Amino acid sequence: MTLKEALLSISDSKQISSVHRHFKTQSETERAVSKLGRILENEMALAEPIRDFQIRIAHEFSKSGLTGLGRKDLKRIPYGLWGGEHPLSALEPVVDTYLHALRALGTASWFRILTRVYFQNTHQRDATIEKVRQALLKQAGQPAWTWSGPARQFDLFSQADPSDKILKLFKPSIPAIEALGELGFKHGLETSQFASDIFSLTLKHFKTEKARHEDWMWEFGQSENELRFPECTSIFVSALLNPWLTKTPDETRRQRLIDRLIGLLGDPRIKPGAWAGVDQDCLNLIKRWLIRDSIELFLDIVDESAVDHQWHYRRAFWTSYLEDDYISEAWVAFGPTPENLARSRFKEAFDTHQKYGQLTHLSDRSHSVLILRIGDLTVAEFSHNGKCWIWPSAHRDRAPKPYLPRYSRNELMDAPRAFIHHSASSFKWQNEVANEIYRDARVITKRADWQPKG
Hints:
This protein is α+β, with helices and mostly antiparallel strands. It has helices spanning 3-8, 13-24, 38-44, 50-64, 71-75, 92-105, 108-120, 127-139, 148-154, 163-169, 176-183, 193-206, 214-221, 233-241, 251-265, 280-303, 308-323, 336-345, 347-352, 428-441, and strands at 222-223, 226-227, 329-334, 357-360, 368-374, 377-382, 388-391, 406-408, 417-419. The chain has three domains: 1-149, no CATH class; 161-278; 282-450, no CATH class. α2 runs antiparallel to α4 (50-64), α7 (108-120) packs across α8 and α16 packs antiparallel against α17.
């Protein structure tokens, strides 16, 4: 059968007319074109935008069916089935004509393109995806076809649920990408929708064993510090953090998780959009870890230069609020001298993500400030002999915002309340500050916890 005969056998005038009417009523307003997948954008190699390709194919069909198209355009029709402004999957006559030609004339390259597009679009729920599945299932019966073995072994194109068979292949003893390759998903298909579904399936399957398989999940879920499956961000982050909602990881693992997730998604306090959809308990957990890190960073660096009798009482006081989980936001701003010290001591951490802001317009370059939120009250605690400045909730609009890249010294000293750190050993300033916090936020810590340790 010739190409023209194959196409004419299904393309009648009624089908052509229905396609013409469909596209004639479509809006010409340009919308964002959906990506067909990272690898498909390179492989399609269309000499025109996908929108133009879809409209051109439909136009040719409306005139004389697909007989006016050459083999090259016919072979590339799968690229226009989904995505873009005018998906060809909505045009049943075009789909049926293409599949008819596929059965009559399709070569290995035709099926290779269709298979890749199918695995990129397994989330589709229309009649076309089912027709394509059936065509590929039939092709899987051909022993010489590349996908025949994996298709039979793992039910890739059947209506049966392949979950149990696939899970036997995906286990922590085998690197996930290696398992994907064994399944046939390589050369770009390791980022396909079908691979994404496998990723979700394995994360759910591990359940309580997630803590043991952290490294395996990490290698599966990202590549070169980029999300492999952005649509799985929520389930991925939850899988990594869920084990630690009820217990505390050792410090090495905790810091590794922070560095990995912040390096991948950014600080949730600074880039909350990247964390949208993440389980709230998991989000609260990593925020608590980051709050602790900010406070301890400030305390550790100031310990290097502050006069001991001035500082160790302040460390004990603010640590008591940290340990009782009363601090909802924390950020540090360093002057030039402590910034250099922090960078030299924590170089690897600073290379991963920003951990502080800069303090400018200083008369003493060694000063730093710790910005805290307790309820709706804001605190700016200066190092050395600086005061503790407090903005009650009624003045929150005037208070400094945490997580900014830089602060002027003067803007952090414009609070309605200011406290001098005097008579620390008798807890005088501590009582004054604690009472101010209690009046506004209705929380207070035990006086015994204000006593420096050691």
